[in-house]
Amino acid sequence: MRIVVTGAAGGIGRTLIPLLCARPEIAHVAGIDRVPATFSHPKLSFRVADILQAEAASVFEGADAIVHLAFSLTQGSLSVEAMRANNVVGSLNVFRAAREFGVRKVVNLSSVSVYGQGENLDEQAPLAPSSLFPYAQQKAELERAVNRDFADIDTVHLRSTFVLGPNATRFLRRMFTGRVTLLPRDPYPNIQVVHENDVASAIINALEPSIHSGTFNIAAPEVVTVPELVRNKRKLFVGIPISWVEQVVGTPPETGLSRPVDSALELFRSSLTVSCEAARNVLGWSPKYDAWDARKSSDRSHWF
Asked: Which CATH superfamily is domain 2-298 in?
C-alpha cells in the first residue's frame, strides 16, 4: 500500500508517519508540506510543496490512499481569506488530485468544532460552527463540499477534539499547560481532549480496506474543563477571567469578520463534548490515553 500524507511536517504528521512506516503492509509513504520533514525512513519520500499550487498534484500519482492533515488551526497573521485558501481551496485541490490519479480513499482530519456547541453529540448532530471561529466554519464547508462533489471517493472524516501530546501546536500547549490561562464564566464549559497517538491510531484504522466512507468523532472519554486541565494539582496557577479580556478587546466588528482574539475567546465560552461509539463500533478504535495523560505529555514547563 502507498500512502500520501499532506501536512506531513505538522504535529500529527510527525506522530503518524513513523507509525505508518513501521507497518509491513505499507510499502511507501509520501509526505508533502510547505516545510521540510524532520523524520527520515527508507519507506518515506518527502516533497516541499504547497497544496494550493498545481505542481503539488503529481505527488498523489500512484497512491492507494491519502491522509489529509494540512490545515491552519489559528488565524495568526493570516486574513480569513488566506486561511480559507489553505483549509478549503487547498483541501479541495487534494480531492481533485485524488480523482485525477484514481486514489480510492481519503482520510480527512476534521474537527468536532463543526458542531459549534452541545454535549455528548454523535455524528448525526447538525453542523453549526461558530461564526467567530473561521477554522470551524472552514472544516464544515470542506466536509459539505466533499460529501456533495466527491461521492466517488471513499472519504473518512475524523472529527477530532483538541489534540494534545509532545507534538501539540504551540497554541494548544499554551492553552492547556501554561500557568496562566483564561477562566471561563462559571459554570465552566465542558470539553474533551485527545492524545496525538490516539488520533494516529484512528487514522490507521480508517485506512483499512474494509472501512469505506463515514464520519467519526475522536476524543478521550473524560469530560473536563480548561481550568481543571491547566491546574492539574499545581500549587501555582493564575486565572484571568474571560470577562476582563472581553472588556479590553471589545465586541467583534459589526461586519461579522472574526479577529484572531475572537476565535481564541470562543473556545472558552461553550460546552462541546461528543460520543465516540461509532468509532469504537465501526473503526474498532478506542483511546489508550486519558485526558490527563494527553495533558501531561504536552507539558513543556512554560509559563505562557
From this structure: NAD(P)-binding Rossmann-like Domain (3.40.50.720)
